Amino acid sequence: MPAKPTPAAPETPLLHPRNAHQGRYDFAQLGQTLPALQPFVTQNAYGSESVDFNNPAAVRMLNRALLKQFYGIEHWDIPANYLCPPIPGRADYVHYLADLLASVNDGQVPRGKGVRVLDVGVGANCIYPIIGHQQYGWHFVGADTDAGALRTAKAIVGANPALTGHVELRQQADARHVLQGVVKPREQFDLTLCNPPFYASLAEATADNRRKQHNLGVKSGSKAAPGLNFGGQPGELWYPGGEEAFVRRLVQESAQIPTQAFWFTSLVAKKVALPGIYKELQWAKAHEVRTIDMAQGQKKSRFVAWTFLDAEQQQAWRAARWSKEKPAAG
Protein backbone atom coordinates (compact mmCIF):
# COMPACT_ATOMS: atom_id res chain seq x y z
CA MET A 1 0.00 0.00 0.00
CA PRO A 2 1.36 3.47 -0.84
CA ALA A 3 2.10 5.69 2.11
CA LYS A 4 -0.29 8.50 2.94
CA PRO A 5 1.19 12.03 2.67
CA THR A 6 2.67 13.30 5.90
CA PRO A 7 1.11 16.57 7.16
CA ALA A 8 2.75 19.80 6.10
CA ALA A 9 5.11 21.29 8.66
CA PRO A 10 3.97 24.42 10.55
CA GLU A 11 4.47 27.55 8.48
CA THR A 12 7.28 29.90 9.43
CA PRO A 13 7.70 33.60 8.52
CA LEU A 14 11.48 33.23 8.17
CA LEU A 15 13.76 32.10 5.41
CA HIS A 16 15.75 28.92 5.84
CA PRO A 17 18.52 29.41 8.46
CA ARG A 18 21.25 28.78 5.86
CA ASN A 19 19.73 31.21 3.37
CA ALA A 20 22.17 34.09 2.88
CA HIS A 21 19.38 36.56 2.06
CA GLN A 22 18.00 37.25 5.53
CA GLY A 23 16.53 40.69 6.23
CA ARG A 24 16.48 43.67 3.90
CA TYR A 25 18.77 44.01 0.91
CA ASP A 26 21.93 46.00 1.71
CA PHE A 27 21.83 48.22 -1.37
CA ALA A 28 24.97 50.12 -0.35
CA GLN A 29 26.98 46.89 -0.30
CA LEU A 30 25.31 45.55 -3.43
CA GLY A 31 26.09 48.81 -5.23
CA GLN A 32 29.76 48.43 -4.32
CA THR A 33 29.72 44.83 -5.55
CA LEU A 34 28.10 45.85 -8.84
CA PRO A 35 28.32 49.60 -9.56
CA ALA A 36 25.93 49.17 -12.50
CA LEU A 37 23.15 48.65 -9.92
CA GLN A 38 23.56 52.11 -8.38
CA PRO A 39 21.53 54.10 -10.97
CA PHE A 40 18.52 51.86 -10.24
CA VAL A 41 18.59 52.46 -6.46
CA THR A 42 16.22 55.15 -5.17
CA GLN A 43 14.35 55.94 -1.98
CA ASN A 44 10.93 54.34 -1.71
CA ALA A 45 7.82 55.87 -0.08
CA TYR A 46 9.08 54.76 3.34
CA GLY A 47 12.44 56.50 3.00
CA SER A 48 14.40 53.28 2.50
CA GLU A 49 16.71 52.43 -0.37
CA SER A 50 15.16 50.11 -2.91
CA VAL A 51 14.70 49.48 -6.63
CA ASP A 52 11.54 49.59 -8.70
CA PHE A 53 10.46 45.95 -8.65
CA ASN A 54 8.02 46.72 -11.47
CA ASN A 55 10.99 47.53 -13.72
CA PRO A 56 12.42 44.33 -15.27
CA ALA A 57 15.77 46.01 -15.96
CA ALA A 58 16.12 46.97 -12.30
CA VAL A 59 15.25 43.45 -11.14
CA ARG A 60 17.76 41.88 -13.54
CA MET A 61 20.48 44.23 -12.29
CA LEU A 62 19.61 43.43 -8.67
CA ASN A 63 19.90 39.73 -9.44
CA ARG A 64 23.29 40.28 -11.07
CA ALA A 65 24.49 42.00 -7.90
CA LEU A 66 23.10 39.29 -5.59
CA LEU A 67 24.61 36.48 -7.65
CA LYS A 68 27.99 38.21 -7.71
CA GLN A 69 28.06 39.06 -4.00
CA PHE A 70 26.71 35.81 -2.56
CA TYR A 71 27.58 33.17 -5.16
CA GLY A 72 30.67 34.49 -6.94
CA ILE A 73 28.94 34.68 -10.33
CA GLU A 74 30.67 37.35 -12.38
CA HIS A 75 28.60 37.09 -15.56
CA TRP A 76 24.82 36.67 -15.52
CA ASP A 77 22.08 38.16 -17.66
CA ILE A 78 18.91 37.01 -19.40
CA PRO A 79 17.05 38.35 -22.43
CA ALA A 80 14.04 40.60 -21.95
CA ASN A 81 10.76 38.76 -21.34
CA TYR A 82 12.37 35.69 -19.77
CA LEU A 83 11.49 34.88 -16.17
CA CYS A 84 13.64 36.85 -13.72
CA PRO A 85 13.47 34.90 -10.45
CA PRO A 86 13.40 36.22 -6.88
CA ILE A 87 16.67 34.77 -5.63
CA PRO A 88 15.90 34.47 -1.87
CA GLY A 89 12.90 32.22 -2.54
CA ARG A 90 14.84 30.10 -5.04
CA ALA A 91 17.64 29.68 -2.50
CA ASP A 92 15.12 28.52 0.11
CA TYR A 93 13.99 25.65 -2.13
CA VAL A 94 17.61 24.54 -2.56
CA HIS A 95 18.36 24.63 1.18
CA TYR A 96 15.21 22.72 2.08
CA LEU A 97 16.13 20.15 -0.58
CA ALA A 98 19.49 19.78 1.17
CA ASP A 99 17.60 19.15 4.41
CA LEU A 100 15.47 16.56 2.63
CA LEU A 101 18.62 14.63 1.69
CA ALA A 102 19.99 15.04 5.21
CA SER A 103 16.77 13.62 6.69
CA VAL A 104 17.57 10.24 5.12
CA ASN A 105 21.33 10.46 5.69
CA ASP A 106 21.73 10.63 9.49
CA GLY A 107 21.26 14.40 9.49
CA GLN A 108 24.19 15.07 7.16
CA VAL A 109 23.79 16.93 3.85
CA PRO A 110 25.49 14.98 1.05
CA ARG A 111 27.75 17.38 -0.81
CA GLY A 112 30.03 17.42 -3.78
CA LYS A 113 29.92 16.48 -7.43
CA GLY A 114 28.76 12.94 -6.68
CA VAL A 115 25.32 14.31 -5.82
CA ARG A 116 23.39 14.65 -9.08
CA VAL A 117 20.33 16.89 -9.37
CA LEU A 118 17.89 17.25 -12.26
CA ASP A 119 16.28 20.68 -12.72
CA VAL A 120 13.07 20.27 -14.73
CA GLY A 121 12.54 23.60 -16.51
CA VAL A 122 15.92 25.16 -15.84
CA GLY A 123 15.02 28.34 -17.76
CA ALA A 124 17.33 30.98 -19.16
CA ASN A 125 18.26 32.15 -15.66
CA CYS A 126 19.83 28.79 -14.59
CA ILE A 127 19.24 29.88 -11.01
CA TYR A 128 18.87 26.53 -9.24
CA PRO A 129 22.09 25.04 -10.67
CA ILE A 130 23.95 28.23 -9.72
CA ILE A 131 22.78 28.19 -6.11
CA GLY A 132 22.89 24.42 -5.67
CA HIS A 133 26.40 24.04 -7.03
CA GLN A 134 27.87 27.09 -5.33
CA GLN A 135 26.35 26.19 -1.95
CA TYR A 136 26.68 22.40 -1.93
CA GLY A 137 28.92 21.45 -4.84
CA TRP A 138 26.17 19.37 -6.48
CA HIS A 139 26.30 18.43 -10.17
CA PHE A 140 23.25 19.56 -12.15
CA VAL A 141 21.44 18.53 -15.29
CA GLY A 142 19.04 21.25 -16.44
CA ALA A 143 16.27 20.46 -18.93
CA ASP A 144 13.99 22.80 -20.84
CA THR A 145 11.77 22.83 -23.93
CA ASP A 146 12.89 26.35 -24.94
CA ALA A 147 16.00 26.35 -27.13
CA GLY A 148 16.52 30.07 -26.54
CA ALA A 149 16.47 29.60 -22.77
CA LEU A 150 19.03 26.81 -23.04
CA ARG A 151 21.33 28.98 -25.17
CA THR A 152 21.29 31.68 -22.52
CA ALA A 153 21.80 29.18 -19.69
CA LYS A 154 24.75 27.64 -21.58
CA ALA A 155 26.24 31.12 -22.03
CA ILE A 156 25.97 31.74 -18.26
CA VAL A 157 27.65 28.43 -17.47
CA GLY A 158 30.37 28.99 -20.04
CA ALA A 159 31.12 32.50 -18.79
CA ASN A 160 31.63 31.41 -15.18
CA PRO A 161 34.51 28.96 -14.58
CA ALA A 162 33.01 27.95 -11.21
CA LEU A 163 30.07 26.38 -13.08
CA THR A 164 31.85 24.94 -16.11
CA GLY A 165 31.79 21.15 -16.04
CA HIS A 166 29.25 21.08 -13.23
CA VAL A 167 26.07 22.00 -15.13
CA GLU A 168 24.84 20.00 -18.12
CA LEU A 169 21.93 21.29 -20.19
CA ARG A 170 19.50 19.22 -22.27
CA GLN A 171 16.54 20.08 -24.45
CA GLN A 172 13.19 18.41 -23.91
CA ALA A 173 12.18 17.89 -27.51
CA ASP A 174 8.57 16.93 -26.75
CA ALA A 175 6.61 19.46 -24.68
CA ARG A 176 4.04 16.78 -23.89
CA HIS A 177 6.60 15.08 -21.65
CA VAL A 178 8.51 16.10 -18.55
CA LEU A 179 11.05 13.41 -17.68
CA GLN A 180 10.63 11.11 -20.66
CA GLY A 181 13.25 11.91 -23.28
CA VAL A 182 15.44 13.75 -20.75
CA VAL A 183 16.45 11.09 -18.23
CA LYS A 184 18.74 8.55 -19.90
CA PRO A 185 18.41 4.79 -19.35
CA ARG A 186 20.02 3.68 -16.05
CA GLU A 187 20.87 7.32 -15.21
CA GLN A 188 20.37 8.16 -11.53
CA PHE A 189 19.63 11.41 -9.70
CA ASP A 190 19.66 12.03 -5.97
CA LEU A 191 17.11 14.80 -6.42
CA THR A 192 14.85 16.23 -9.05
CA LEU A 193 13.44 19.74 -8.64
CA CYS A 194 10.84 21.69 -10.56
CA ASN A 195 9.23 25.12 -10.54
CA PRO A 196 6.17 24.28 -12.67
CA PRO A 197 4.23 26.73 -14.84
CA PHE A 198 1.78 28.53 -12.55
CA TYR A 199 -1.04 29.43 -14.93
CA ALA A 200 -3.39 27.42 -17.13
CA SER A 201 -3.35 29.91 -20.03
CA LEU A 202 -1.95 33.21 -21.31
CA ALA A 203 -5.30 34.85 -20.53
CA GLU A 204 -5.05 33.80 -16.88
CA ALA A 205 -1.46 35.05 -16.63
CA THR A 206 -2.37 38.40 -18.19
CA ALA A 207 -5.38 38.88 -15.90
CA ASP A 208 -3.27 38.19 -12.81
CA ASN A 209 -0.64 40.63 -14.03
CA ARG A 210 -3.30 43.36 -14.40
CA ARG A 211 -4.45 42.70 -10.85
CA LYS A 212 -0.89 42.97 -9.52
CA GLN A 213 -0.27 46.21 -11.42
CA HIS A 214 -3.53 47.66 -10.11
CA ASN A 215 -2.41 46.83 -6.55
CA LEU A 216 0.92 48.56 -7.28
CA GLY A 217 -0.92 51.63 -8.53
CA VAL A 218 0.34 51.25 -12.10
CA LYS A 219 -2.10 52.46 -14.71
CA SER A 220 -2.87 50.18 -17.63
CA GLY A 221 -1.07 51.26 -20.80
CA SER A 222 1.50 53.37 -18.99
CA LYS A 223 5.21 53.09 -19.79
CA ALA A 224 5.70 51.42 -16.41
CA ALA A 225 3.21 48.69 -17.26
CA PRO A 226 4.83 46.08 -19.49
CA GLY A 227 2.74 43.21 -20.77
CA LEU A 228 3.88 40.85 -18.02
CA ASN A 229 5.78 42.67 -15.30
CA PHE A 230 7.20 39.46 -13.84
CA GLY A 231 8.55 38.36 -17.22
CA GLY A 232 8.42 34.87 -18.59
CA GLN A 233 8.00 32.86 -21.76
CA PRO A 234 4.91 30.69 -22.38
CA GLY A 235 6.58 27.49 -21.17
CA GLU A 236 7.67 29.22 -17.98
CA LEU A 237 4.28 30.69 -17.11
CA TRP A 238 1.43 28.48 -18.30
CA TYR A 239 0.60 24.89 -19.10
CA PRO A 240 -2.77 23.39 -20.10
CA GLY A 241 -4.48 22.66 -16.81
CA GLY A 242 -2.03 24.79 -14.80
CA GLU A 243 0.49 23.66 -12.22
CA GLU A 244 -1.65 20.81 -10.90
CA ALA A 245 -1.82 19.19 -14.35
CA PHE A 246 1.92 19.68 -14.84
CA VAL A 247 2.85 18.16 -11.48
CA ARG A 248 0.46 15.25 -11.99
CA ARG A 249 2.19 14.58 -15.31
CA LEU A 250 5.53 14.74 -13.49
CA VAL A 251 4.25 12.16 -10.98
CA GLN A 252 3.06 9.86 -13.77
CA GLU A 253 6.42 9.97 -15.52
CA SER A 254 8.37 9.56 -12.28
CA ALA A 255 6.47 6.30 -11.67
CA GLN A 256 7.91 5.01 -14.97
CA ILE A 257 11.49 5.42 -13.64
CA PRO A 258 10.94 4.77 -9.89
CA THR A 259 14.51 3.71 -9.07
CA GLN A 260 16.31 6.36 -11.12
CA ALA A 261 15.89 9.10 -8.49
CA PHE A 262 15.84 9.03 -4.71
CA TRP A 263 13.57 12.05 -4.33
CA PHE A 264 11.33 13.59 -6.96
CA THR A 265 10.12 17.07 -5.95
CA SER A 266 8.13 20.02 -7.25
CA LEU A 267 7.11 23.42 -5.98
CA VAL A 268 3.33 23.78 -5.60
CA ALA A 269 2.16 27.39 -5.35
CA LYS A 270 -1.58 26.73 -4.92
CA LYS A 271 -2.80 24.76 -1.92
CA VAL A 272 -5.92 23.81 -3.87
CA ALA A 273 -3.69 21.77 -6.18
CA LEU A 274 -2.46 19.51 -3.38
CA PRO A 275 -5.41 17.05 -3.13
CA GLY A 276 -5.19 16.19 -6.83
CA ILE A 277 -1.42 15.77 -6.61
CA TYR A 278 -1.75 13.54 -3.53
CA LYS A 279 -4.31 11.42 -5.35
CA GLU A 280 -1.94 11.04 -8.29
CA LEU A 281 0.83 9.99 -5.92
CA GLN A 282 -1.42 7.35 -4.36
CA TRP A 283 -2.26 5.97 -7.79
CA ALA A 284 1.46 5.96 -8.63
CA LYS A 285 2.15 3.98 -5.43
CA ALA A 286 4.77 6.35 -4.04
CA HIS A 287 6.41 4.80 -0.98
CA GLU A 288 6.68 8.10 0.91
CA VAL A 289 5.30 11.61 0.32
CA ARG A 290 6.30 14.77 2.18
CA THR A 291 5.09 18.36 1.97
CA ILE A 292 7.61 21.01 3.05
CA ASP A 293 6.34 24.52 3.79
CA MET A 294 8.44 27.61 3.11
CA ALA A 295 7.87 31.34 3.58
CA GLN A 296 9.35 34.64 2.46
CA GLY A 297 7.75 37.40 4.47
CA GLN A 298 4.03 37.16 3.89
CA LYS A 299 4.44 34.95 0.81
CA LYS A 300 3.87 31.27 1.55
CA SER A 301 5.07 28.45 -0.64
CA ARG A 302 5.74 24.74 -0.42
CA PHE A 303 7.12 21.78 -2.29
CA VAL A 304 5.99 18.19 -2.47
CA ALA A 305 8.59 15.40 -2.39
CA TRP A 306 8.07 11.72 -3.06
CA THR A 307 10.14 8.58 -3.33
CA PHE A 308 9.42 5.09 -4.61
CA LEU A 309 12.36 3.57 -2.70
CA ASP A 310 11.61 1.42 0.32
CA ALA A 311 13.85 1.35 3.42
CA GLU A 312 16.16 -1.33 2.03
CA GLN A 313 16.54 0.45 -1.31
CA GLN A 314 17.22 3.75 0.46
CA GLN A 315 19.98 2.17 2.53
CA ALA A 316 21.56 0.67 -0.59
CA TRP A 317 21.37 4.07 -2.33
CA ARG A 318 23.14 5.81 0.55
CA ALA A 319 25.86 3.17 0.67
CA ALA A 320 26.45 3.29 -3.07
CA ARG A 321 26.29 7.03 -3.67
CA TRP A 322 26.74 9.09 -0.50
CA SER A 323 29.35 7.17 1.47
CA LYS A 324 32.07 7.72 -1.15
CA GLU A 325 32.72 11.25 0.09
CA LYS A 326 32.62 12.26 3.73
CA PRO A 327 29.49 14.43 4.04
CA ALA A 328 29.81 17.86 5.57
CA ALA A 329 27.55 18.93 8.40
CA GLY A 330 24.31 20.64 7.45
UniProtKB/TrEMBL annotation:
Biological process annotations from GO: rRNA base methylation
Locations listed in the record: Cytoplasm
EC id: 2.1.1.181
Catalytic activity line of the entry: adenosine(1618) in 23S rRNA + S-adenosyl-L-methionine = N(6)-methyladenosine(1618) in 23S rRNA + S-adenosyl-L-homocysteine + H(+)
Family: Belongs to the methyltransferase superfamily. METTL16/RlmF family.
GO molecular-function term, one example from the UniProt record: 23S rRNA (adenine(1618)-N(6))-methyltransferase activity
GO CC annotation terms, alphabetical: cytoplasm
Protein name: Ribosomal RNA large subunit methyltransferase F
Gene3D superfamilies for the chain: Vaccinia Virus protein VP39 (3.40.50.150)
Entry keyword set: Cytoplasm, Methyltransferase, rRNA processing, S-adenosyl-L-methionine, Transferase
Pfam families, per the entry: Methyltransf_10
CDD domains: AdoMet_MTases
Keyword match Glycosyltransferase: no
Tree of life domain: Bacteria
Function: Specifically methylates the adenine in position 1618 of 23S rRNA.
Organism: Hymenobacter persicinus
HAMAP family assigned: 23SrRNA_methyltr_F
